[in-house]
Amino acid sequence: MSVIELTTVATEYRDIQAQIKMLEEQAETLKQTMIREMDAQGAEKLQAGPFEIRYTLVESSRLDSAKLKADHADLYSQYTKRTTSTRFQVA
Q1: Domain ranges across the chain
Q2: For the chain, what is the radius of gyration of the CA atoms?
Q3: In CA terms, which of 29, 57, 69, 90 is 20 to 30 Å from 82?
């Protein structure tokens, strides 16, 4: 692949990434509109034609690894596993 072709592909990639970001922002705006409507109606669930819209509180428990490391460094290191991954960037 030539430098010109690679530049074209990188430009197209960056354009698509920008479009994705814009669409994600639009989706978030629409989501917030639906949440405001649900709040206004005091509803956790609404029916909108074929769509069932839900907005519910979900609780979960997570390990506070920073606190574990600070309080029990030896235990933390015993149960820490190193991983490797790849990162792709067009800057």
Answers
A1: 3-78
A2: 23
A3: 90
